[in-house]
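W.,

You were right to be curious about this one. When I first looked at the sequence I had no strong expectations either way, so I just let the prediction run and decided to look at it fresh. Below is the sequence, 253 residues in total, followed by the output.
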Amino acid sequence: MIRVSRILAPNPGPFTGNGTNTYLVDSDGHAVVIDPGPNDDGHLAAIVDAAKPFTVDFILVTHTHEDHAPGANPLSERMGAATAGFGPGPEFKPDRILADNEVVRFGACEVHVVATPGHSADHLCYQIGTALFTGDHIMGESSVFVEDMTSYMASLRRIQRLALDTLYPGHGPAMDDPQSVIAGYIEHRLEREQQILDAVRAGVSRIDGIVDRVYDQVAPDLRPLAAIATRAHLSKLMSEGKVIVDGEQVTVP
């Protein structure tokens, strides 16, 4: 039996929603911390305080973006727990490098590592029982920034095959209908992809024009995210031979 506690980091914003979720997962006196977030003294103190009843065996990082990883090593110094993740990154140096399908143990529990590249090349999700801690692969608030759309779609389909009851995202509330949520993410991305392809076929030949047409309802502060998503979709479409991208110009073959 596991228990999940959330400690919300004080870093709200357009890309982080109400802030980064740090999770303390405990069972039988042992625990892991997932995504300690930014290196913020108050937040790290709150994690240490919440973890006092337990032996923390690992501090796990889903990926090395600045709102998830920088608190890991300072927290390790305070707790004495080992850090672990895909690899080093800005302000993060893991004690243990994790590979896909690897198992991390805390007490009698197992954490199964699920490689989910797409949001970033180094992204991992962590499965504990029927719970999946999704980092920024799936978010309960805000939109997901995607670097590699081909990898991202494959990662979504991979977690769709897992037996899950709950998703614990890096931002926003937990989700108790994983299959519906994941299917919705896939459907949304396929819809965006078709909208982008339709725009190019209609003669919209510049990337900024595609962003204007497809993401016309997006708030101005999220426009940079929309532009990145458009480029990721176009890269996928180009790899499939459906468009030709030359700098800022896009055409169909």
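Here's what jumped out at me. The radius of gyration is 19 Å. And, maybe more interesting for your project: The mean pLDDT is 95.

Coffee later to discuss?

I.
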